[in-house]
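Notes from hallway chat w/ T.B., transcribed later so I don't forget. T.B. wanted the structure written out for a chain they're using in a teaching module, and asked if we could keep both sequence and C-alpha cells in one place. Agreed to drop them here.
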Amino acid sequence: VFLLLLHLLVSSEALASRRGGRPRKSSGRRGSSSSDSSRGFSPARVPSVPPTVSAPTIFHGARPERMVRPPTDRERAFLNESPHNNGMALLAAGQYEEAGLAFEKALDRTPDAIETWSALGVCMAKLGEADAALVCQRQVQRLKGINAHGNTEQALEDEVSSLVSASALPPLPDGSILTISIGSLAECDTGGRLWPSAHALCRYQHRIAGEMYGVAVLELGCGTGAVGLFAAALGARLVSLTDGGPTAVLQLAESNANANQRMWNDSKTSVEVWPLAWGRPVPESVLGQGYDWLFGSDVTYSMGAHGPLLATIREVLKASAGGCRAVLAHERRVANQESSDVRLENLCNEAEAADMKVITLYSEFEGERCVLLLEVKLQ
C-alpha cells in the first residue's frame, strides 16, 4: 500500500511539471485568468462589459495597434477553394486589383455567376475602368434575363431591347413619320435595331432640312437605313445605304426603303443599297456619286473599327474635293457623365494619326443616353 501511494505521488508531480507548474484548483469564477488559460483562449476575447457599453481604457505610453486575428488553416483552405469568397475578402480590405484577379479566376470556373460579375464590376469601377465596369453590368443583366426566361436568345433580345430606343423616329417637317422595321439579333446582329444615335442624327437633319433638298447622301453602317431614309424623305436626290454586316441587314434596309417609298414618290429621289466594308477600297460606283453628306450613327462603338472607318471616310472626303461633310452620331457609353470617354479619345487619336480631326458639334440626350454629334474633317 505504501509503495502504491508513493508511486501515485511521483506520477502526479511529474504530470504537473509537464504542464508547467503545480496542479491548480478552479476558482469557480467564469472568465478569470486561471480558468481562461485552462480553456485555451485569450482573455482579451472575453468581454468584461456588455457589448453595448463602452468601458474607458487607460493606455500608458504608446497606444497599442489593433490586433487582427489571422485566418486559421481551415479558413485559408476555404478561401483558396473559393476564389469568389477570396475576392470578397480582398474587396472588403480595399485590395481591388487583387480582388479583380480573384473574381476572374472564379469566372473561369463558373462563367455565369451573377454575384461574381457584379462584384467584378465594383472592382473595375473602383479602379477607374469604366468600360470594364459597364461590360460587367451588362453581363449581370444578360444573366438575369437568362434566369428569368430560361432562354439565351431571348435574354440577348431583352438585353438589346433595354439599350435601344423604343421611341419612333422624329417626325418629318410635314408631320409624317417613317415606318422602320427592325431585325432579329440572330439574323442581323445589333445592326437590325434602332439606336439612340439614329434618332439624334435624324433630328440633326431636321434642323438643316433646307440644306438636304437635292443633295447626295452616303450612310455608313446603315443598319435599318433609318438615317439615310430620313434624308430621302427630306428631298435628297440620291441616298446610298451601305453596310458591311450580314446580308440580312442589307435586306432589312432595302425592305424599309420599299416600305417608305411613298414619302418620295413624287420627287426624283433615288435610294440604293450597297455592301461596303470599311477599310477596303471604296468602289468607283460609290465614289463617283459626288456625295454632299456622309452620315454614320453609332459607328464608333468598336474601337478596333475606328481605323478602317476613318480610312473609308478619308477616301470619300478626298474624292469629293472638299464638297462633302462627314457627320457621325456617337453615344457616350460611360459609367457616369464625369467619366472619360475612351472610345471618343481613341477616335480622336486615330483621326490625328490619319491626318484628320474630329470636332464636336453639340451633344443631346435621347432619354438618359447622351449622344454627341461629331464632324470628321481632313487636316
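Follow-up for T.B.: The chain has a mean pLDDT of 80. Might be a good example for the class.
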